[in-house]
Amino acid sequence: MKWNWWKISSIILIVYVLVAGFLGEVPRLPILNETIRNLYFHVTMWFSMIILYGFSLFYSIKYLRSNDLNDDDWAVEMATSGLVLGLLGILTGSLWARFTWGAWWVNDPKLNGAAIAMLIYFAYFILRQSFDDDRKRARLSAVYNIFAFIFMIVFIGILPRLTDSLHPGNGGNPAFSQYDLNSDMRLVFYPAVIGWAMLSYWIVTLRLRLRRMERENAWNEWND
Amino acid sequence: MFTRIRVLLAHEIKSEWKQRYAVFGLLLFVLSTVYVSYLAFQGSLEPRTWNALLWIILLLASVNAATGSFHKETHGRYWLFYQITDPRSIILSKTIYNMLLMWLLALLAWFCFILFLGNPVVNSPLYLAALLLGSSGFAGTLSVMSSISARTQQNTALLAILSIPIILPLFLVSLTLSNAALLGLSYELWWRSLLVIVLLNAVTLLLSYLLFPYLWRD
Question: What is the ipTM score, two decimals?
Answer without folding.
Answer: 0.87
